[in-house]
Amino acid sequence: xxxxxxxxxxxxxxxxxxxxxxxxxxxxxxxxxxxxxxxxxxxxxxxxxxxxxxxxxxxxxxxxxxxxxxxxxxxxxxxxxxxxxxxxxxxxxxxxxxxxxxxxxxxxxxxxxxxxxxxxxxxxxxxxxxxxxxxxxxxxxxxxxxxxxxxxxxxxxxxxxxxxxxxxxxxxxxxxxxxxxxxxxxxxxxxxxxxxxxxxxxxxxxxxxxxxxxxxxxxxxxxxxxxxxxxxxxxxxxxxxxxxxxxxxxxxxxxxxxxxxxxxxxxxxxxxxxxxxxxxxxxxxxxxxxxxxxxxxxxxxxxxxxxxxxxxxxxxxxxxxxxxxxxxxxxxxxxxxxxxxxxxxxxxxxxxxxxxxxxxxxxxxxxxxxxxxxxxxxxxxxxxxxxxxxxxxxxxxxxxxxxxxxxxxxxxxxxxxxxxxxxxxxxxxxxxxxxxxxxxxxxxxxxxxxxxxxxxxxxxxxxxxxxxx
Length: 469
Ligand SMILES: Cc1cc2nc3c(=O)[nH]c(=O)nc-3n(C[C@H](O)[C@H](O)[C@H](O)COP(=O)(O)OP(=O)(O)OC[C@H]3O[C@@H](n4cnc5c(N)ncnc54)[C@H](O)[C@@H]3O)c2cc1C
Known about the structure:
Blueprint: E1 13-17, H1 21-32, E2 36-40, H2 49-52, E3 61-64, H3 66-73, H4 79-84, E4 88-90, E5 92-96, E6 102-106, E7 114-118, H5 119-131, E8 136-139, E9 142-148, E10 153-158, E11 164-168, E12 171-174, H6 181-189, E13 193-208, E14 211-212, E15 218-219, E16 226-232, E17 235-241, E18 247-254, H7 255-260, H8 264-274, H9 279-282, H10 284-293, E19 297-305, E20 308-309, E21 313-315, E22 321-322, H11 330-347, H12 359-389, H13 395-410, H14 418-423, H15 429-468
Parallel strand pairs: 1-2, 1-12, 2-8, 5-16, 12-21
Antiparallel strand pairs: 3-7, 4-7, 5-6, 9-10, 10-11, 13-18, 13-19, 14-15, 16-17, 17-18, 19-22, 20-21
Bound molecules: flavin-adenine dinucleotide.
Flavin-adenine dinucleotide binds at residues 17-23, 40-43, 58-59, 62-63, 143-144, 175-177, 181, 203, 250, 297, 317-318, 325, 328-332, 334.
Main location: mitochondrion
Pfam families: FAD_binding_3 (PF01494)
Protein name: Kynurenine 3-monooxygenase
């Protein structure tokens, strides 16, 4: 244990860069472990009312599932329960198949569900919880510019005053999102493998407002307990419910399609052709206003390795692995990063005071353990990019889903649908990926061996009917 010359125990100091969902959860875990924690966030404090309208986030609501809930549960007591009080359960997909046809596809055979949660509400709750710890300090409007990991120095620009300010820390955590400055700084000192891929699709958010029901109250315009999908192969729209009875729709399509819509007439023609049942729900005027006003966000998948540097720094969340949003796992995976890191600290007995423990080995172990999982979910998210806009209406895909679901119901230990492993369990993503591939192999083998039996059986039935005539 390290003490100062006056015999005072020297607490370890961690600087968390990035006050998004993952960064603030990391603050809670480190505060609970007894570290001195400083959070540095580029934006203003969103808990201050007038800042709310200035803060633009990536998506208004998110799908929260088992991994995210587990990480929330294992930090501050009751945090998961508080979150669950403000979410809307979604038990399956509701496919808008054109001409008003709706098809429900439950997510799980045992009634499992994912939850629609508002990003702002979750951020606010996490920030308020962090503020209850006396060992946490939060600095807003601080943009990291540069850091020297070996001496634990960080340089920020205070956006309010324009001044450059320096801080120091024993450990630096980069939770500063897809375009992470901590990651860029790490690349100077670490031989980091790095890849990124932009997909051709962009996204734009639209709103389905509440309707007034016959009691005169606000009500949902569609079933709130589903994630709604309008799958159109090369593009799609989804909608998630909000607590104020509205839905946030996200339209995903290639940039060139967005660019081709130049006028209100182009827009209405496009929506009438592809999403006609959504027009009365959104409302023509709102659709025109929001479509042309709201930003068109790009979608990128980022992989890198390693995530750490000696006992000095680590990156988590989107800073380490950014994925396309089609599995609804970006935040869930980032939350699980924090839980996994905490578990490794526990295993390696990492202390909250400066000591000769094995912090460097713990961080190395984190990269070793987490990298295959982060890579797997980035790949699965890319796979779901096709599944959601196309496969959900493909009869073969639906047949495999049904077969897998039935087998899971009969033999839950041996066959587990991919969606269940990813969204309703905390199983390692890499294990889920391997099991899914193996299950696919055996299902195909069984299917292929049943084909000749089926052919012989049909011939036999045909022959018997022919003899009877
Ligand atoms: C359209 C869309 C839909 C999505 N839907 C889902 C979903 O349903 N479920 C799900 O689990 N995930 C979803 N995601 C993914 C999810 O939004 C991200 O994975 C999650 O926000 C990552 O959190 P983070 O804290 O790592 O990064 P971020 O949320 O990006 O936060 C990073 C923070 O760092 C700050 N920052 C950046 N640079 C600096 C700097 N230099 N100095 C100081 N601060 C800095 C930023 O201001 C920001 O607050 C979706 C993403 C998109 C785009």
